[in-house]
Amino acid sequence: MINESKTSVERKLISKIFYGFMLFVIAVEYLSNHLIHQLNEPVLINPAADNTYWLLHLLMIPQLIASSNDVALAFEIIWVALILCCLVFERQVIFNWLFTIFFLVFIVTKNSFVAHQEHGINAAFLMSFIFLVRNETRFSFLFRAFRYYVLFIFVSAACWKILRWNFTNPFQLSEILKSQHAYYL
Fold this sequence. Notes:
The chain is an all-alpha fold. It is 69% helix and 0% strand. Helix 1 runs antiparallel to helix 4, helix 1 packs across helix 7 and helix 4 packs antiparallel against helix 5. The longest helix is centred in the N-terminal third of the chain and has 28 residues.
């Protein structure tokens, strides 16, 4: 049986860390000029082959947000306000739902117009789902499931590298970093 009061304290701590981290991510995105309003009304769209992307593009949501810097800035300000609401009112799951929806729209819009899929932020998006429940037992279950899922990703990546003998290549990590982060160099 799960101790409800202990889980509640852990939930508050995890919530503060997660949403504080999201504020940090947005600050880094802003300083790197990677927010939607900093794209200066892009016109080229690359929704890739993802059904979620196609659905949002058929609804014209990314086009509406990216079509004007003012709309994009308003969207991002509302998103930051939702993060602050999630920090202050961690038990009100409506803010968590709205945050997750805005997060999805942000990811789809940004990735569609920069024509580059940023997979690093997907883990944060997946983690936002654990805050969508009020029940402490469900929260604890979702948090443990997310933890095991992340461990599965790392273990399967390690097995892939071991099976392909990539660990014998001394330049493997540096080459991956160069190919994936060339624009930072």
